[in-house]
Predict the structure of Phosphomethylpyrimidine synthase.
Amino acid sequence: MTRTQLQAARDGTITSAMERIAHRENCDPEFVRDQVADGQAVIPANVHHDALDPMIIGREFSTKVNANIGNSETTSDLEEELEKLHTAVHHGADTVMDLGTGSDLDRIREANVAHSPVPIGTVPLYEAVKRAGSPEDLTTDVLLEVIEKQAEQGIDYMTIHAGILLEHLALTEDRKTGIVSRGGSIMAKWMEAHGEQNPLFQVYDEICEIFAEHDVTFSLGDSLRPGCIADACDDAQYAELDTLGELTRIGWDHGVQVMVEGPGHVPMDRIAENVERQQEVCDGAPFYVLGPLVTDIAPGYDHITSAIGAAMAAQEGAAMLCYVTPKEHLGLPEKQDVRDGLAAYRIAAHAGDVANGMPGARDWDDALSEARYAFDWTEQFELALDPERARSFHDQTLPGDNYKEARFCSMCGVEFCSMRIDQDAREASDDGELKELKRETDLESSSAAEVNRPPVGTHDTSAVSPVADLDGVDLEREYPKADD
Ligand code: SF4
């Protein structure tokens, strides 16, 4: 009988995953155990996910970032999906959600788990709809079958849209953009067609039992998240949140770990309210937020509109940020979109950690600033969040090696480089001797968590074969088809 990380923590056991996390977060293993035991943090770690390097999600730990990948009916195959997984982990994703809705879902999911050092999340409802043929034809049996199969495949956390209830639907009637969560719209359609309560809510206890058996973590879906800032914080959103609070406690009663998903689109002046309310209603269960986007006017740039909200949410106590790419609202993200989205969100997460005074978080900033003021360009590139981009931007105009020690770059040029002028002025006022430039930050001895130190992709991939190498994955395995 599996003991979940939550059950072990409650029993006073420090698991090997907790030990590893304490090392990565630079904290005491007992603190990790205590936070998990109280439901204030989760360790998504399915017992079947052998390649996992354990990590933790909770407001007392460094802020984490999730990247979504997955195919659609029109694009992508297994190798492309593994390439996206590799890109996401390389650029610092702490977890990856496989939101595929296209073909070959089982093979792709299994390959993702086999290759991923980070937790893999899914929305099992998508596969269930494909199996059933339409939202209206979903049954509780199909839902439970898909959830159980994905749990057996090693999925670490699943979004379960059990919080949207029949009585909530009328509350969305005056919204500008209705129900924008994919899972939420499917559940709403089912409830309207049958006039019955949400089937995931009906079988929630059975789902808890499956999750307990494999140690799958709940990510309770916010089906009624606002799809535009006009709909933010309305009665529908907050009614569902109350249900999510109840579901959190039921999950805990079953010994299952729980985190709760949040919006969406929220103007800046209401972000703090969202985080505070979730923390209160859900008894401190980790808050996992999508963005939020703080304005609706910038399709094509929604990694920026949402990273602003994500940074504010992180400062207020959100534990994990679900990235948004520039393709949001427009199309399926590709490799470059994954990279751009992750950069935006790693910045948001780190900015939140710096603002919250997470131990050592600012050391990275200080080390980079010292390298910058010393015109140590090579070190500056190495410390950059995205070293490849920093180097390539610099080298577009000054590619020669001689420019790696130059006391200027092409932005202001030789004559107007303010840092050079400042150093010259200080030298002149100091009898011709500029005191040695300060280079005192030692990242090796920093108290920062691994995710707050470069390189940004800090996962131990040594146990995982290269993503392009599919050895060890049974690609020929047959799975039941939708009509089986
Ligand atoms: S030229 Fe301007 S941007 Fe470049 S290093 Fe000097 S101050 Fe910084």
In short: The radius of gyration is 24 Å. The longest strand covers residues 64-69.
